[in-house]
Write a structure and sequence with these properties.
Erg6_SMT_methyltransf, transferase, Methyltransferase domain-containing protein, alpha/beta, single chain, 224 residues, methyltransferase, Methyltransf_11
Amino acid sequence: MLDLGCGGGRHAFEVYRRGADVVAFDQNVEDLASVETMFAAMKEEGEAPAEATAETVKGDALDMPFDDGSFDRVIAAEIFEHLPHDTAAMKELYRVLKPGGIAAVTVPSFLPERICWALSEEYHTNEGGHIRIYTRAELEAKLKATGFEIGPHHHAHALHAPYWWIKCAVGTDNNDHPLAKAYHELLVWDMFQAPTVTRVAERLLNPVIGKSVIVYVRKPRTAA
């Protein structure tokens, strides 16, 4: 399993915990060092099956150092909105996925992202920030044009959308603003406690203000 643009590694950690052979891929060496440290700690503590493997690889999403058809699964979470050449990265994703392999591709949902852009220019003009807003139809059209078969989709992280609206309103770097700080504490509490009331609320709100849209795609077993 390839975690493409792994960042801090949260997806890689979970699939490693579930027994996958994981490659965490990113161009940020500091993030990769932190991910590698966590992989080692998980192995030492027995948090992943002994037969599972985990490694980090540095590189460019437009030119990945992997052979064709190297991976059964790929997670590409919140990366294409950062890339000027998103379709080139989609072609690389297609190349490294095995025939019949499945990828989960996520980008910020249109409505929550549009509100963020309206509230803050800084949010989308910072170096490495979001350079485009996708509709789901546009994302699926680009993936289909790459060669993927389009599968199901869903939305997630509705409770995170208001947090980013607050951040955009008070300043994206203003982590000490009382409202932003209080909402962040709420999200942390929800993450660790997972109370029924917030789980139900998020499920109901996800189709409307889910911060992310996730599209599942498959590489055809035979070339067209």
